[in-house]
Amino acid sequence: MASFRLQKTWAIVPSDIWTWGGDALITIEGKGDQTQVDIKVKITGQLYDWGKSKSVIKKVLGDIEGLHLAANT
Fold first, then answer.
1. pTM score, two decimals?
2. In a domain, 64, yes or no
3. What range does the domain containing 62 cover?
């Protein structure tokens, strides 16, 4: 059973035509034969982020899934 210690990474969320930029905190922790991923996104300077946070989370999870699939081929 492989496990690894908690890993935290900060990422910059770039601005676009609809939102100001922001920050994302991505935490990955191995728990036995499972991996826990926690993603927190904060778009600064706006009351609404117009779906930017959900978009960033979906992209990060898709990238992680792609890495998993590539590692198992």
1. 0.80
2. yes
3. 7-71
